[in-house]
Amino acid sequence: MSFKLRRKIDRQILCTIFTDIPHQVGGLPISFSAVYSAMSEIAERYIEQIQTTAETLRRRIVAYYDGVFFLGNKIATAADRARDVAEPVAYDVKDYVVNASNQTEPVSQMEKDTKNNIVELYLGVSVLMLGVSSGELAGAFVFPCLLERIFDPFMEVLTLILVPTYVYLNIRKNAAMDDTERRTCLFGFCLTTGILLGHLMGGALTSIAPSVFFIPPLMLSLLMDNELIRSPLAEMDRSTFFAIGGAVSSFLCTMFAMLPVGYFSVAIFLLSFFHVAFLTIHFQVITQCAKEKIMMVGESQFSYIMGILLIQLLMTAVFGSDPNNAKQQPARPPPHK
Questions:
Q1: Residue 236 has what DSSP assignment?
Q2: Taxonomically, which superkingdom (predicted)?
């Protein structure tokens, strides 16, 4: 008898025995066929549960997949609508700035009231720049321990977004705000923003000497007002006025920045140059708004502050370096010979 035939006969005998002879499980007779049936049912239920779970996962993955595309389509639609709205506004602003920059008449030919208002505006801007610089120095060197207990970096960034938004809306919507309230609001904004920026970026922000930011708007105000400083610049065309005045302002900023920094800095010179260029564009736009009787002092000062802060952050990201971190780095051991 072969091995395969003997194995087949043994299997049939065992199946017959376990099927026909009842066994005692817990005192109750139970056959092998009942046990086999129960186990088969349990296995089938497990298989059904696995299939149901797999189908549920498949449906959820498909739903997430469709949701991502739905959200992407919504974002694309919103971006298209925003572009349709922003493009005409951007072109209008560009045309307005270009037309304003084409003004060439001397500043001495401006109306006296308009000139006095612009001089007062930029004198106020120079004071606000002092608030920004003092806030940055305080945030970097005076209040770090206190601010670290109150804020984390995420909250500081969020506050730096919310505070300018609140100040702009407050100036824009509050028509009953007088000059004292406006100045207090803007100076508080400059001081708060400077403190948070100084603590967030540390010595890298102060390494480009923000304490000289008040010089360009102050020089512009003094050169415009012939009653304070007698100079022939006010009688010249605006291109010459801004070229000479900007060169003097950049030179003074670079020289005075050597007092706290201790050396000539190309980064500070470039920052002063960009500051003067931005001041030129801002002045041209402000004078055009004054001609059209739409000049708002609060919004003009706010836009100037935000522009200078943006330029400062960009220059800090490129040229800024924290001297404290350089001092705290351990010295490298000399190489072994």
A1: S
A2: Eukaryota
Token code pair at residue 181: 């309230």
> What kind and span of H or E run contains 25?
strand 23-25
Torsional sign, CA 156, 209, 211, 243: negative
Residue with tokens 């208002």: 117
Distance of CA 179 to the CA centre of its chain: 30
251: tokens are 């030179």
Examine the domain organization and report whether 81 and 111 are in the same domain: no
Per-residue pLDDT tens digits for 56-80: 888 888 888 888 888 888 888 888 8
* Domain span at 33: 7-85
Whether 312 and 290 have beta carbons less than 8 Å apart is answered as no
Distance CA 10, CA 62 (A): 52
Q: What is the pTM of this model?
A: 0.73
Same domain, 277 and 212: yes
Question: Helix, strand or coil for residue 55?
Answer: helix
Tokens of 94: 């560009």
CB atoms within 10 A of CB 220: 27
Same domain, 49 and 138: no
- Same domain? For 69 and 113 the reply is no
The structural domain count of the chain equals 2
